[in-house]
Amino acid sequence: EAKVLITSGGSLTMSGVVSEVLVVANRILAMERVVDAFGHVSARVSPSTYLLSRATAPSTVTAEDLVTYDLEGNAAEGSPRPYAERMIHGAIYESRPDVGAVVHSHSYDAVVYANVGLKLPVMTHTCAPVGRVGIWDIRDNFGATDQLVRTMDQGRDLAKALGGDGRAILMRRHGAVCVGRDVKSAVMTAVYLQHNVRMALQASLVSGKDSFDRLNQEEIDLAADLQLSDFAVDRAWDDFLARLPSAAPQNARRMVGWRGPSRKSRCTFLYEQ
After folding, report:
1. CA distance 53 to 232
2. Of residues 129, 101, 102, the one with CA closest to residue 194
3. pLDDT category of residue 89 using cuts at 50, 70 and 90
4. What does the pLDDT look like over 45-81, one tens digit per residue?
5. Which of 9, 109, 131, 255 has the fewest beta carbons under 10 Å from its own?
6. What is the number of helices (H) and of strands (E) in the chain?
7. Which residue in 140, 203, 208, 206 sits closest to 173, CA to CA?
8. Residue-wise DSSP of 113-168
9. Integer angstrom CA distances of residue 193 from 34, 45, 72, 108, 132
């Protein structure tokens, strides 16, 4: 298990395994084209802090790029330039103690579906982890903006739209957010959201309408229980690792990350006085 050391002075030291898994998550999302030069993935490391790269392309992230932020998006003085949209991560962690990882992408397939405004169907059982996918529009409460989620108020509005049990949400003219109990499940959900949106778009083109077949809610719930099991998530993660252009760190094969108060934690938090 990963060990996180929090001293009385507030400094944070992590074993390398958490960092390695987050680095690999960035590479997987880039490989799967969920992110390109833009987008980011974070991991919660305590109830009030999370780990996120400095502002750089996900395909280039290394352990040296990772920075610890509090829920308001603050880092230690002298930290490198942060992602402008880190407030997405902090606001979701603030409102969802069950969430251990957040993925934000500018998935262009998701943008198409979000802009059309149709309810996203779940096309097949492997995509069931996305669950009920809503649509958030920054215009509704913040008017004309550059579309980036730059403030905690905007992040909290997005988190509210995601809801208390949502795992994915589309963002009009922008992209999508996916969450999970840990890095592996969040990455898996983000990848299969991309697959699901593409299938829905293809079905719309083939059928010429929005009345094609899809899973009903009972089927989504049953399939999601299976697909989000540790066995299924580990199987997907191993497939991602096997297809990476270069070998992933061995530690990245281990299940690590915040599990929230309702699940058995895979991280140990040691408080020094």
Report:
1. 27
2. 129
3. very high
4. 999 999 999 999 999 999 999 999 999 999 988 889 9
5. 9
6. 8, 10
7. 140
8. HHHHTPPPPP-SGGGGGG-S-EEE-THHHH-S--S---SHHHHHHHHHHH-SS--E
9. 9, 25, 28, 12, 11
